[in-house]
Amino acid sequence: MIAFQTEHLHLAFLQALPKQFTKAVAIQVGEEWGISERAVTNKLNRLCRDCYLERVRHGVFAKISTTKRRAISSGKHRDAA
Q1: What predicted TM-score, i.e. pTM, was given to this entire model?
Q2: Domains of the chain
């Protein structure tokens, strides 16, 4: 049950962010939610690891579409495509 709640919070936090954003924006949203800067960094790392976000460049993130996420998880995604 705790894992589900944690996953739900990660996804709710993700929905509160724009399609592309900086870490500073994520930290600001986190502050509004009462989340520490370190916890926001951890969330960003987890969302990247779980294929919900990608790092565009240092400190800049973009949401990954559901279609692209499915392709990545099935092993059919290629960065060149």
Answers
A1: 0.76
A2: 2-74 (1.10.10)
C-alpha span between 40 and 26 (Å, rounded): 7
- For 16-74, what is each residue's pLDDT tens digit? 999 999 999 999 999 999 999 999 999 999 999 989 999 999 999 999 987 777 777 77
- What span, in angstroms and rounded, lies between the C-alpha atoms of 18 and 78? 25
The CA distance from 40 to 27, in Å, is 6
* 3-state SS track over the chain: CHHHHHHHHHHHHHHCCCCEEEHHHHHHHHHHHCCCHHHHHHHHHHHHHCCCEEEEECCEEEECCHHHHHHHHHCCCCCCC
Q: Could you tell me the two tokens for 18?
A: 């724009």
